Amino acid sequence: MKDLFSIDGKVAVVTGGSRGIGEMIAAGFLANGAKVYISSRKADVCDATAKRLQADFGGECISLPADLSNVQGCEALANELASREQQIDILVNNAGVSWGAPIDEFPEIGWDKVFDTNVKGVFFLTQKLLPQLRAAGTTDDPARVINIGSIDGIQNPIFETFSYGPSKAALHHMTRGLALHLTKENIVVNSIAPGPFPTWMLSTGVGGGGDTDIDWSAVAKGNPRGRVGTPEDIAGLAIFLSSRAGAFIVGETIACDGGQAYAS
Questions:
Q1: Active-site residue identified among 29, 124, 162, 164
Q2: pLDDT single digits (tens) 200-222
Q3: Looking at residue 80, what is its pLDDT?
Q4: Which of 74, 122, 229, 264 has CB atoms 3.0–4.6 Å from 93's, for a disulfide?
Q5: Coil, strand or helix: which one is 133?
């Protein structure tokens, strides 16, 4: 019982791990003894984040840049991981994009890019890493796949990001489909639907221009908990789902939002 929440010694992959929620989860994994691979499109940013996280939290953090909006990028990352690891215990599909434009001007690429990354890329990276996930999973300690959705896939956002919410709703539904087919192979799939966290993506939506070092009080005021999320909030939930404590949770979408989706 005392090791219920341990992920010590596990191998984790966190996509979109160079900033935002992915970086927060990677930091939590490192601080709790996991070996972590992070991936993002921009190699220099990914490399710098991996170096900083390793210095701050110890352990081993490895940068593997990749574009996960297409099958070729998913295959390239999976092949690189396969050359390094026979088993992967935890896959966090966090890489995601959004697109904002007025409804009269919203372009086709704003749908294609968002769905390619937020839905299709998640499916194909998971598919390509199935050999390593199958090798890691056992009846008592299954491999874990955690898809990072959004409360915008549960409720409609006020922002003019017309493709983002539907993409996250699709991701939540795909989580259930993957869980249905993979649980019997000792691979447990769940999703997390974050609410307001101090990230680049949210900053662009509230007028911060991507700067996360802004006054978040206006956003916090609209949240039932009276604040935005912290790294401990999102990393704690990811650690729970990745540990023995979460081994019987299957196909769920868990909101991590201070009550914004259901209590407001």
A1: 164
A2: 788 887 778 888 888 889 899 98
A3: 98
A4: 122
A5: helix
pLDDT of residue 208: 82
CB neighbours (10 Å) of residue 147?
Answer: 27
Model pTM?
0.96
1: in domain: no
Contact status, residue 246 vs residue 154, Cβ threshold 8 Å? no
- Residue 210 belongs to a domain with what CATH number? 3.40.50.720
* 164 classed as catalytic: yes
Flag whether 56 is in a domain. yes
| 148 in any annotated domain | yes
Q: Which residue type occupies 104?
A: D
- CA angle 64–96–21, rounded 5-degree value: 75
Given a cut of 90, whether residue 158 has pLDDT beyond it is no
Domain count, the chain: 1
In a domain, 194, yes or no: yes
Kindly report the number of other CB atoms within 10 A of residue 222's CB atom.
12
3-state secondary structure of 219: helix
Residue 41 predicted with pLDDT over 80 = yes
Q: Which two tokens mark 260? A: 């914004």
C-alpha–C-alpha distance, residues 53 and 25, integer Å = 11
What whole-number distance in Å separates Cα of residue 95 and Cα of residue 176?
19
Spatial contact of 227 and 210, defined as CB atoms under 8 Å apart:
no
Q: Which domain holds residue 81?
A: 11-256
